Amino acid sequence: MTSSQDACYISLLGLAEYFRTSTPPDIKKCIQCLQALFTFKPPLKVEARTHLQLGQILMAYTKNTDLARNHLEQAWILSENINNFDDVKFDTASLLAQLYQQQDQSSLAKPVLRKAIELSQHNVYWHCKLLFQLAQTHATDKEYTLASELLAVGVESTDESNATYLKSLFLLSRAMIMMIERKTNDVLAILNQASPIIDHSIPNVHLKEYLKVFFYVLQVCHYLQLGQVKTVKTSLKLLQQSIQTIIAPNWPSDEQIFGQNNTEMFMWLPKEQLYVLVYLVTVSHSMMAGYMDKAQKYTEKALTQIEKLKSQENKPILAVFQIILLEHIIMCRLVMGNKSLAIKEIALAKDVCLSSSHKFLLKKHAPQLHCLLGLYAMSTSLCEHAEKQFYACIQETTERELKLFASLNLAIVYLRTKREQDLRNILEQIQQENSQCSNSQALMGSFYYVQGLNAFHKSSFHEAKRFLRETLKMANAEDLNRLTSCSLVLLSHVFLSIGNSKESMNMVTPAMQLASKIPDIHVQLWGSAILKDLHRMLKEPTQEVEALNNHVNFSQNLIADQMKCTKFPEHALVNWFQGDPPLPMLSQELAVQPVASGAPVASGSGTAMVMPGGQQQQQTAGGTFVRLPGTLNQQVMFQ
């Protein structure tokens, strides 16, 4: 390189940076300066670095992804075999793979990342970052075995280089993959392996606290995935304590904590997003436990925090958190009898999905939206629409728990519409699928409940009691309050039907107490009707009048809310069964039928999943019904 060439390069680079940092930036002139470098036929390193810089600028400031891709491919070809050129070489590979994924060409991203991983074994930072990125790529494509194998390589690699913090991240990330695959025993084994490392081998107290949050989130999600609402309480409390430590005013900034050395520059999530995530798993726990008021309160706080973060920087993962929270709150509204708010929030969830890049969230959450619309249609006695929505959910989802949840509610639709053969078929199908795999305590209890409800409608009262006692056993063991209240009120109805007023009263009284605490207006409506009949049988006119007045009030509130929501334009969403949902909403006339005072729908809940990656990207998330794992569901990236 001659001195005159050197001066030209430096001048052009200086000018490019000047234009890039101007107010406002002049990106066109910045790009022109960088492109002018090529006219001097620069050395390979300079040429490769300039192609990388052009790719970075085009990706950051323009929509010209094809030109960005061309420059990055040139940079990778040039730098791949140059020694002592790690930052340019591996930054190019990482960015090019990211661009391929944005263009839905992960098959091109994987060989680039694999080659870069092979070349980076001497560089712990880049080797680990690329391993995380390739694992995330495979996980996004649901190639979980390959993702798990790569994370296992990361564990071995960091063990050899004594990078204990990174080893912990690889272990926890691998536990997350196992959770998605529902490998319960493997999840426990990896969490048990990670726990002593976090407790005793991480000298930096700040890094240790972040790892504890990651660990507790996974542990909480694992228990929730199994429907173990009571068992999870200790872990949830520890998680809440850890997040309070991290968001305290005297806690250092993320930049201070994660900028000390290369092996400690990996962060699962920034503390502001962890704060929202802890709210989310708390909401999930409250939903499963049957504390709807708590779930609503925490959801509102979390959504407020999300809006605050969006105003600072609207990262894609915030929309993921938002949609999961909305799925939870919609179910709360339906349980509490507030259908008018529920359909508004279903429409909002639909809009959030549609507004995501390439409708990414719609692809992941359409089954959940169909399921929510099915629950809404059931609550408005539109059984035909409910059937179609649940069927759409079952056909579209690949999540076993969500499919089971929708199938259980579809069974109740068949029960209410007296379609005995369809009901037998779906119960046999559920039974067959359940015999081959384990499910959460909540869903298994719900399955027994539906069988009990079916036996009750067939007047097989002894069989109904047998199923419902199984449900109560499972629900009481893990404090599944809504399942308990539903089972108690149905048992009360069973005893009422066989003339055992004493046992009926013993069942309906705690059912009404629980339903009031939740609150669950459907169980209250049902229970007040039973109480009215019981007091009449016992010749207690004062209590009979009181129960009748309560029943009338519950019924009138439900009917008034139904009349209100069916007039909303959003109500037309019940007619969306396939493809993209309608936008904008158009009013459509639908028959309004009286609210049935019969059985409430089966309740499900969920979790939220999280995964690794090179930089924060969009996250897939599952529905409230079954994922966080039952709902965070699949990815939250490392940064």
Describe it:
This is MAU2 chromatid cohesion factor homolog. Keywords: Cell cycle, Cell division, Chromosome partition, Mitosis, Nucleus, Repeat, TPR repeat. One of its GO terms (biological process) is mitotic sister chromatid cohesion. It is found in: Nucleus, Nucleoplasm. Component of the cohesin loading complex. This protein has 639 residues and is mostly helical. It folds into 3 domains: 1-120, Serine Threonine Protein Phosphatase 5, Tetratricopeptide repeat; 158-266, no CATH class; 316-582, Serine Threonine Protein Phosphatase 5, Tetratricopeptide repeat. Helices cover 71% and strands 0% of the residues. It has 27 helices and no strands. Helix 9 packs antiparallel against helix 10 (184-200). The longest helix has 25 residues, at 541-565. It is elongated. Mean pLDDT is 88; it is low at 586-639.
Put the structure in a nutshell.
The protein has 639 residues and is mainly alpha-helical.
Helicity level: over 70%
Q: What does the overall shape look like?
A: elongated
Tell me the CATH architecture of the largest domain. Answer: Alpha Horseshoe
| CATH level-3 fold name of the largest domain | Serine Threonine Protein Phosphatase 5, Tetratricopeptide repeat
Subunit structure: Component of the cohesin loading complex.
Function: Required for association of the cohesin complex with chromatin during interphase. Plays a role in sister chromatid cohesion and normal progression through prometaphase.
InterPro entries: MAU2 (IPR019440), TPR-like_helical_dom_sf (IPR011990)
Protein name: MAU2 chromatid cohesion factor homolog
